[in-house]
Amino acid sequence: MTKQPVDLEAAAQAVRQLLVAIGEDPDREGLADTPMRVAKSFEEMTSGLHIDPAKHLETRFNIGHDEVVLVRDITFHSLCEHHLLPFFGKAHVAYLPADGQVTGLSKLARVVDGYARRPQVQERLTMQIADAIEEKLSPRGCAVVIEAEHLCMTVRGVAKPGASTVTSALRGAMRNNPATRAEVLALIAPAGGR
Ligand SMILES: Nc1nc2c(ncn2[C@@H]2O[C@H](COP(=O)(O)OP(=O)(O)OP(=O)(O)O)[C@@H](O)[C@H]2O)c(=O)[nH]1
Ligand SMILES: [Zn+2]
């Protein structure tokens, strides 16, 4: 089934109903345009649902580089699928090229954005990025580490601002070879530590 683009009118109607449900007057001046604004915000924040982010990794060149490639500190924002509140932070994406085949550096960040702009949980986001790299680049190893703050843990519920959630997906040599694993984790670790 082809995914349909966002039905903005239906989304705006739903937001209007939400405003009524929380006891607001959706017709007061300040809220008049809010339903459509929120609908468009969700369209933007879920734009990754309508693309295949892995396709970005079809841009490849052979430059004979066979050691670690790491793009660190890729900022992203996503939407927690339990509360539809943002979670945001940094992704670090590394791989060990096979046969000197590399992809464009920006493509790694585009893959992060593509999977992030969906209702997500952090663990799935981490795995999907690693899966895409494995599938498209067949690297000797790859590592994805994500650190993020979840607004659902900050502005509501347990209310722990500053709590940082770290998830990793390590594959191939970056999982199984202790030296390679130590090397990439050291490269990912912030200089000077926390
Ligand atoms: N593993 C995981 N949990 C998440 C993520 N985002 C949000 N959550 C958690 O999902 C859980 C949902 O728990 P529920 O008990 O169903 O929901 P809730 O009553 O709103 O829970 P509280 O947040 O504890 O108030 C919460 O513990 C959230 O912290 C995520 O990316 N990964
Ligand atoms: Zn949540």
Automatic annotation (TrEMBL):
InterPro entries linked to this entry: GTP-CH-I_C/QueF, GTP-CH-I_N, GTP_CycHdrlase_I, GTP_CycHdrlase_I_CS, GTP_CycHdrlase_I_dom
Pathway(s) it belongs to: Cofactor biosynthesis; 7,8-dihydroneopterin triphosphate biosynthesis; 7,8-dihydroneopterin triphosphate from GTP: step 1/1
The enzyme's E.C. designation: 3.5.4.16
GO cellular component: cytoplasm
Signal peptide: none
Reaction equations catalysed: GTP + H2O = 7,8-dihydroneopterin 3'-triphosphate + formate + H(+)
One GO MF term: zinc ion binding
UniProt keyword terms in alphabetical order: GTP-binding, Hydrolase, Metal-binding, Nucleotide-binding, One-carbon metabolism, Zinc
Gene Ontology biological process terms from the UniProt entry: one-carbon metabolic process; tetrahydrobiopterin biosynthetic process; tetrahydrofolate biosynthetic process
Keyword Metal-binding listed: yes
Binding site for Zn(2+): C80, H83, C152
GTP cyclohydrolase I domain sequence ranges: 12-188
Enzyme class per UniProt: hydrolase
Entry annotated with the keyword DNA damage: no
Pfam families listed in its UniProt record: GTP_cyclohydroI (PF01227)
Quaternary data: Homopolymer.
Similarity remark: Belongs to the GTP cyclohydrolase I family.
Protein name per UniProt: GTP cyclohydrolase 1
Organism: Boudabousia liubingyangii
Gene name in the database record: folE
